[in-house]
Specification:
- With 136 residues, the chain is mainly alpha-helical.
- The protein is built from five helices and two strands, in the order αββαααα.
- The chain is globular, with a radius of gyration of 16 Å.
């Protein structure tokens, strides 16, 4: 389990994609658990009101924050027994920063990954609007 949280694997799923004209198996930042928690944060808890959905990167902070929370929650059980983890900014900042850095250096430096990430965020918005009936 330590590898899962150290390298953020718990937030990714593997996906075959054409990158630069070559079919590759790449990790994409869209694990179902991550997407579900982001959706709950936005739509169940009402944080959608604070997001500018016209800005393609507006959800990045929410995704990184949720990812950090998931990684810390997993760390509570990393040795197979629950132990209390401090969810403070001091503990989550490095994980949050690592996720944001991954977005900037890996996702946004690759056209194909950028397009896919954008579509995931558009789908989250559309699913939330559809579920709630809210007009943005």
């Amino acid at each position: 389990m330590p590898t899962l949280t150290t390298h953020l694997q718990c937030l990714f799923k593997m996906q075959e994609m054409m990158i630069g004209g070559v079919l590759q198996n790449v990790p994409v930042l869209e694990h179902a658990g991550l997407i579900h928690v982001v959706m709950d944060v936005l739509w169940v808890n009402g944080f959608y009101k604070d997001i500018d959905f016209q800005d393609p990167q507006s959800l990045d902070g929410v995704i990184a924050l949720v990812g950090a929370a998931i990684c810390l929650a997993i760390q509570e059980y990393e040795m197979g027994v629950w132990k209390r983890i401090d969810f403070s900014t001091a503990k989550s900042k490095s994980t949050y920063t690592s996720i944001k850095t991954y977005m900037m250096q890996t996702i946004y430096s690759c056209v194909e990954l950028t397009e896919r990430f954008h579509l995931i965020k558009v789908n989250m918005k559309n699913r939330g609007v559809s579920r709630t009936g809210i007009v943005l």
